[in-house]
Design brief:
Number of strands: 0
Radius of gyration: 53 Å
Largest sheet: none
Number of helices: 1
């Protein structure tokens, strides 16, 4: 029984205490050490605070358009009682 207890304690010491990371890296060796930082994807944590939204949009009817009435046409007529004289006929000049 002591043997099983020692074996269980040894198995617990071998296991890592942190969670395992499963990352895959593929690289090409060129003989010169070139270090490039590998960035992990961090999850977005929203900040607690006040949200300032866009300003409100006010919709109003268009201003009224006033149309001025067109004045009526004025017709000139001769005064009554005056005879209308037709213009003299225009004839071609006589031949010579």
């Amino acid at each position: 029984m002591l043997r099983k207890l020692i074996l269980a304690a040894l198995a617990l010491l071998v296991l890592p205490m942190s969670s395992a990371l499963a990352e895959v890296r593929i690289g090409v060796g060129i003989g010169v050490p070139v270090f490039r930082p590998y960035h992990r994807h961090h999850y977005y944590r929203p900040y607690l605070g006040v949200y300032v939204g866009p300003p409100p949009v006010y919709v109003a009817p268009p201003p009224p358009v006033y149309v001025q009435p067109v004045p009526a046409p004025v017709y000139v007529q001769p005064a009554p009682g005056q005879p209308v004289v037709p213009p003299p006929p225009v004839s071609p000049p006589p031949p010579r």
